[in-house]
Amino acid sequence: MSLKDRKKLAELIEKLIKGKASKNEIISLYNFFLSHQTIFKWPKEFENKELVEKEIFNKIQKQAKIGPYKESKLSKLRSLNFIKYAAVLVIFISVCYFIFNNEETNKTNIVIENNIEIGTDKATLTLEDGSNIVLEKGKTYKKENIKSDGEKIVYEASQSEPVPKLTYNFLTVPKGGQFYIDLEDGTKVWLNADSKLKYPIKFIDGQPRDVELLYGEAYFIVSPSTKHHGDKFRVISNHQEIEVLGTEFNIKAYQNDNVVETVLVEGKINVDINNENKILLPNQQLKYSKLTNTSEINTVNALYETAWRFGYFKFYKKSFFEVSKVLERWYNVKIVFEKNELKDFKITGVSSKHQNIENFLKTLKNTNNITYEIKEDIIYIK
User: Do you know which InterPro entries this protein is assigned to (predicted)?
Assistant: First the structure.
């Protein structure tokens, strides 16, 4: 760890212990613990690590109004429903704010030299007549009950006469993009990179509220049926149909992936796969294999699976190959492994999506001796 980083860390710890740390500073310290607990050595001059860890945890609990500190081990910190509270309190400081390399690495400044762009808010709206509208930051769009500020699109509920038939729009998010949509019934949908959603511009009373995730990944917070005369909300996606009995869930159904993953965050959903119904409860994940036409339900930490919605990559024992697919979609690059064994390398950690991809790669290089080379939009892992 460089002298500058040591000094900064010491200042933050002192402010925390004295009760003078701001919310941002508390989150910075939490981020340090979460990201560097297992792969970086704790500096000798900060001996009472558990005390600092406990103080961080208690401060966050106090702000989030949750229970008392029970265990100082980071396993408990990781299981905390933290991202949800942090999204309200303050945006996380990038993990790479503290890159604690060894002394040799810190002797030189690493200059980032690549043209790989960080993903941003952008999408293409396809209207009922087939025309396409490009949505992106800095551009506004408005038509009847539809409006967009370039970062989201909102369908306002219409007070006009009921529509005789469903009329559909499509929202397509390219690689290197993301977008948020408010449907006409109040349902909120976040679309990840390389995703496409089909949905009615207005739902019909007395009929199921059906939308279709044609491909990609989406996070849904569904307006309950009780607000819509009991009309069900259903999501059709890649070999499965999901009836929403609760509120929040995530679907990952990319075209080139052999597995479709559905994770429940809150409430309850019923997933119909090949005429077989499976009920999911919070923190359960249904994995459906396209290759074997089989499915299984596992218990997961839903926050790891949905961190993308809050602007973060959050991996827990994911293979480098799985991680590479996430990076490829967000940064619109291609990642090539020159050694097959590197694909199985396990990665655990948190990283901001709003940083240059080379920051992520440098961290792997400095901590695990994994080298890389960037040639235009292709990254070679060696």
Answer: FecR, FecR_C, Ferrdict_sens_TM
